[in-house]
Amino acid sequence: MINSFIKANLAAQGHDQRVDLVRGIAIWFLLLDHIPQNIVNQLTLRNFGFSGAADLFVFVSGYAAAILFGKMTLERGFVVTTSQIIKRVGKLYAAHLVMFVIYLNTIGWVAARYGTTDIIEQYHVIGILNDPVRVLMHGLLLLAKPLNLDVLQLLIMLLAFFPFALVALLRWPNVTLVGSIALYLVARLFDIGPPAYPRGAADLNPLCWQLLFVLGAWFALNGRILVRALYELPTLRILALSYLLFALVITVASRDAVIGRLVPDFVLNLFAPNDRENLGPERVLHFLLLAFMFVGLVPSDWSGLRWKLLQPVIKCGEEWLATFCAGVFLSFAGHVILITGPNSMAMQILVSTAGIAAMTAVAYYVSWSKRQDHKSALGARA
User: What are the residues facing 197 on neighbouring strands?
Assistant: First the structure.
């Protein structure tokens, strides 16, 4: 029996372009963050607080999945919805496999062509030269951790278990959220998580990162009215802004020696570096307060969502899978260009701008191609 409040909430839900906008921003930031030694990535989210683009992407993916598959459950039932989730997981897994194989070959070729063998270790594909079969097998099992593919691997795992979370969220949303928090705490306390190849643990522990995904889904189904009500409390807004400012100071202080001397060492040691692998609680709180302020300041009917300037970002959010895949290779290409050519500030800006432009072009092409396929299907005769 689906919770009556959630049923009414889902029935009233329309397409929220804020989801595409935020996911597009996350995709752009991921591209820039994945190009090391790049002045432009100093503008991304991770430089202004404890959370980053990965947190943003995982949360909004949970939010979007809850709306899409929640409405599908209302209209077509849980069995059909589960089959569609499995189909989506298969599509993401296939995309990951294709990317993984091409990625391995590309990194191996670049290392041999330019004599930059250290790039193999930098991109976490040790063993590609002397034992490629083992690397490939671990990649098939999502146990290999090549650099920049961790977010997609995480999303595949989270979606694979989402049918169980969805049915629980639709019936007992608050109990499900408490269970997610409990799993997060246990995984952090006992350092539980899947292993990774060739050593160590996954870059993003799914047992911890599931919390952001479930939180996104919970807010989509059950928390939107609560957030709007809380935003009307001025004291809460002041506390949220204070913590966000504190996170900004700590983040800047941990990277700048001059500012760092102004902050006591024991404070820096508590928060820097923050735990990305197991999703440190300071990251969760920072991101939730960011989301809290965003929802309060940007309503779903915000006129800015129609601005032409924002359409490329929104389009990348709509076609996120294609743009994410393109971004992985574009960031690698950008890194190769910078390490094999002049690594000036102007070149870094040019590489970053070209990467975003190419990724946006991919999004527009995929969108156009889908429209053509739809037209063909409508015009086809039996």
Answer: 144
Tell me which residue range forms the domain holding 107: 4-370
Could you write out the DSSP letters of every residue in 147-176? TT-HHHHHHHHHHHTHHHHHHHHHH-HHHH
Supply the pTM of this predicted model: 0.92
Reading the block at residue 119, the tokens are: 């790039």
Number of domains into which the chain is organized: 1
| Residue recorded with tokens 């913590």 | 243
- In this prediction, residues 12-36 reach a mean pLDDT of 92
DSSP secondary structure, 344-364, as one string: -HHHHHHHHHHHHHHHHHHHH
Q: Residue 378 falls within a domain, yes or no? A: no
Q: What integer pLDDT is reported at residue 305 of this predicted model?
A: 92
Q: Is 170 part of any domain?
A: yes
- Taking the CA atoms of 129, 99, 204 and 154 in sequence, report the sign of the dihedral they define: negative
Q: Is residue 345 part of a domain?
A: yes
Reading the block at residue 256, the tokens are: 């700048």
Which residues pair with residue 195 across a beta bridge? 201
CA distances from 141 to 323, 324, 365 (A): 24, 21, 31
Q: Is residue 251 pLDDT above 80, yes or no?
A: yes
SS3 121: helix
- Among 274, 89, 102, 252, smallest CA distance to 164 is for 89
What separation in angstroms does the CA of 300 have from each of 19, 20, 53, 199, 262? 9, 12, 21, 44, 40
**Sign (positive/negative) of CA torsion 336, 341, 343, 347?**
negative
In angstroms, the CA 105 to CA 110 distance is 9
- pLDDT digit string, tens, across residues 141-171: 888 878 788 999 999 999 999 999 999 999 9
The verdict on residue 211 lying in a domain is yes
Beta-carbon contacts of 207 under 8 Å, excluding residues fewer than 6 positions away, are 183, 184, 187, 192, 193, 194
Q: Given this model, what pLDDT does residue 307 score?
A: 93
Peptide bond into 198 cis (omega under 30): yes
pLDDT at position 215 over 50 = yes
Q: Are 282 and 248 in contact (CB under 8 A)?
A: no
